[in-house]
Amino acid sequence: MASQPPVTVEDNPDAAATKKLRADAQRNRDRLVEVAAAAFAAHGVDASLEEIARQAGVGIGTLYRHFPTREHLVEVVYRREVEGLCQAADELSRTEAPDVALEQWMQRFVDYIATKRGLTTSLRILMSTNSTLFSDTSGRVTQALRRLVEAAVAAGAIRDDVDSSDVLHALGGIYSAPDTKDWRDRSRRLVKLLMDGLRFGAGKG
């Protein structure tokens, strides 16, 4: 019996429609997560889900189909922020000088902290129900920073007595700073001051 040619999307309009629907659904989900991250950073975890859906260009029903609870959306946003932060470390390492990569990554870290601060209440709830969420994600961030610091030290771009855990501790102070209108601007200035300290005396060992 002669073999039959494979059925292509062109041969099956229903398959094309299904593929398009899935692509549209993924775009909607990605857009919801992106808008939610900005909303949580700006307004905290109590940001209106209806407003998030509206800004994402979908109905509230679509939001709940992707994220049945607020905590589900919070977890996805949090994981997205961690993933973006770690990817930024790899990308900056490939495209920038080691000290510049470190500084730009720390500026990106400010945005990560802004979102995390907005998620505080729900993250506490998740901590009690998902014991691996924070151990997995915090370890990835720590490793990303360590790679950047070690590369900058090896290049002689920052002091050779710098430990990445000390840098992370310094950045952690930004998280606990008072939540004022100019918090993000002040935090970015603090990152610049921190980098000045890291660069001071570099290459003189």
UniProtKB/TrEMBL annotation:
The keyword DNA-binding applies. PANTHER family: HTH-TYPE TRANSCRIPTIONAL REGULATOR BETI, HTH-TYPE TRANSCRIPTIONAL REGULATOR RUTR. It comes from Mesorhizobium metallidurans STM 2683. Residues 26-85 form the HTH tetR-type domain. Residues 48-67 bind DNA. This is Putative transcription regulator. GO terms for molecular function: DNA-binding transcription factor activity; transcription cis-regulatory region binding. Keywords: DNA-binding, Transcription, Transcription regulation.
